[in-house]
Specification:
Elements: E1 17-21, H1 26-37, E2 41-46, H2 49-62, E3 67-72, H3 78-91, E4 97-100, H4 119-140, E5 150-154, H5 177-202, E6 207-211, H6 219-223, H7 231-243, H8 247-250, H9 252-259, E7 268-271, E8 281-283, H10 293-307
Parallel strand pairs: 1-2, 1-4, 2-3, 4-5, 5-6, 6-7
Antiparallel strand pairs: 7-8
Helix pairs in contact: 1-2, 3-4, 4-5, 4-10, 5-10
């Protein structure tokens, strides 16, 4: 794959519907800006209507003819996920691109969603698992002449040190911010691969891929552990100055995964510079534990049990 891929390589997306979670800021907003500029109809799926209105205004200021709208989605609530999906199912409109981008990182103390899930695992992974499952009829209905719906899961370089704790996915004991975040991002990468395997087995026609932004400068760090005073925060800021790139550059692997005409099914895309922290977008490395199909099946079964969403 050429290492010179840019947004200029994205084809015209007119007539396609793209849904992006967490699209009112950071990577999600940068991704939405580009997709809307390429003609896609873009749904900004997020929890803050005021930020949604602001994001809509920004996108239209750059692309006056953009078809963009906010739709309420709180990933800390399975009821909100269900309501969001039901609104879209009622329209019957096929979904061409679904980007599961939203997330929280390294919360210093254990918090829970309204459903009682640990916040990082519940928000970053479980609600996205439920969202894809509930929207599956619209994803499988994507027009065959477009190559099937594209479903993108946001992972992270943090998956490299991740471990799926099947006996305590919600870290009810021994909570630590980074291992919990690493598990959530490993789960997203495994989800992308398992979804592809199940799509192939069941004839869903999906193209399931994962992407990561490297070390992108977004609010995610400020809102998590690095936003707190102390040695960790100072270290993170130092690393950020040396190793990071902009949110717009961090969005490039996501856009590549979403729009490449021939992505690798179950593949993974990210920056190609030092340690995949920044650099041109391309194929990213999948660590060994992310390829464990037995663990992926166990994670899938637990995810269906916890969310109450089955894929049929």
């Amino acid at each position: 794959m050429a290492m010179t891929w840019t947004t200029n390589d994205i084809p015209d997306l007119s007539g396609r519907l793209a849904i992006i979670t967490g699209a009112t800021g950071g990577l999600g907003l940068e991704t939405a800006l580009v997709l809307a500029g390429k003609g896609a109809e873009v749904v900004l799926a997020a929890r803050n209507p005021a930020k949604g209105a602001e994001a809509e205004r920004l996108i239209r200021s750059r692309h006056p003819d953009a078809a963009v709208r906010f739709d309420l989605l709180d990933l800390a609530s399975l009821a909100s996920v269900r309501a969001f999906a039901e609104r879209h199912l009622a329209t019957g409109r096929p979904i061409d691109i679904l980007i599961d981008n939203a997330g929280v990182m390294a919360l210093p103390t254990r918090q829970t969603t309204v459903d009682g899930f640990e916040m990082q695992f519940g928000t970053n992974y479980l609600s996205h698992f439920a969202l894809v499952g509930r929207l599956l009829p619209l994803l499988t209905a994507a027009h065959s002449n477009r190559g099937g719906a594209r479903v993108i899961q946001l992972s992270s370089v943090a998956h490299r040190s991740g471990h799926i704790r099947l006996d305590d996915l919600n870290y009810q004991t021994h909570y630590r911010p980074w291992p919990v975040y690493q598990q959530s991002k490993l789960a997203m990468l495994m989800f992308a691969q398992e979804l592809q395997r199940r799509s192939d087995a069941n004839g869903w026609g999906l193209i399931s891929v994962a992407a990561h932004p490297g070390f992108a400068r977004t609010d995610l760090i400020a809102n998590g552990h690095a936003g707190k005073p102390g040695l960790f925060a100072r270290g993170a800021r130092l690393l950020e100055a040396v190793l990071s790139h902009s949110a717009a550059d961090g969005a490039l692997p996501i856009l590549m995964a979403a729009t490449l005409p021939d992505p690798t099914p179950g593949g993974y895309y990210g920056p190609t510079g030092f340690q995949e922290m920044k650099g041109p977008p391309g194929v990213a490395a999948i660590k060994r534990q992310a390829k464990d199909a037995d663990v992926a099946r166990g994670l899938w079964a637990e995810s269906e049990r916890l969310t109450g969403v089955t894929y049929g």
